[in-house]
Amino acid sequence: MAPLDGGEKKETERLRPPGLALLLAEARGIFEFNASVFFSPLLMRAPRGDGHPVLTLPGFLASDLSMAPMRRYLKELGYDSYAWKMGRNIGGFSRMRAALRERLAEIHSSTGRKVSIVGWSLGGIYARDLALQEPSMVRYVVTLGSPFANDVRATNATRLYEALSGEVVEENSALRLAIAGDLPVPTTSIHSRTDGVVNWKTCLLRPSETAENIEVHLASHVGLGVNPAALWAVADRLAQAEGEFRQFDRSGPFAIAYAPPENAQS
User: Which InterPro entries match (predicted)?
Assistant: First the structure.
């Protein structure tokens, strides 16, 4: 796949899925959720939203329930948060595209405003595709542990995804390259090197004046959407005025949890 980290990478270069130790350590996701509850007073100090709609898209095998804490948090900050309402996400990228466009159009039409999209894992791939398809309806895209770049097979969920969805991850290379490339809207990719499901290098976008990577130390894949540092970053990014973009300020209350931006590509 095309290089997204500033270096010259070949299409054939292979990354490995995270090892067994990291995969087993995914159980710590419950502690990340508990931490977000404990730090809720701090989290509520995040920048307030302007009421614009935010669509949340769950990861592979997850449902709207997994994004409920995110939606609740964003609603309390003043956003108009929406579920995807499509049941459990069992994959099938190609067959989901039309339904996702309809859901986006429905929210855009009913609110009269551009929609920000927050996608967790596979949901982030959907989010990036929606921004490519309907840039006039999308305000901002935030992905959480989404394997859209480099060697997209480098996950511990690839075989299960292909078995359940009936799709091959690497098919339709033109669309895959487009999703991995620059988006026509501002975007942030939040990831962790200690992700036990997805190789973190598959989450890296090409930084630009409207795109950035944010690495959260020690976060798990299943806990990334409820990790307090990740929640703060999502809220901070969505609070930017429509059409504006500034790089994420890592000096907030969860500063210790973020890697320096210069380390994101190394």
Answer: AB_hydrolase_fold
* DSSP code for 140: E
Tell me the pLDDT tens digit for each residue of 29-77: 999 999 999 999 999 999 999 999 999 999 999 999 999 999 999 999 9
Residue 121 DSSP SS3: coil
Give the model confidence (pLDDT) of 82-129 as tens digits: 999 999 999 888 889 999 999 999 999 999 999 999 999 999 999 999
Q: Which residue has the tokens 């309809």?
A: 102
Q: Which residues contact 179 (CB under 8 A, 6 or more apart)?
A: 125, 128, 129, 132, 148
Q: Six-digit token pair at 59?
A: 């990861």
How far is the first Cα of the chain from the last one, in angstroms, to the nearest whole number? 18
Closest by alpha carbon to 179, among 95, 123, 261?
123
Task: Give me the domains of the chain, ranges plus CATH numbers.
Answer: 20-263 (3.40.50.1820)
Which of 156, 145, 167 is closest to 220 using CA atoms? 145
Kindly report the pTM of this predicted structure. 0.93
* Calculated CA dihedral for residues 244, 265, 1, 150, nearest 10 degrees: -100
Structure tokens at 130: 């929606």
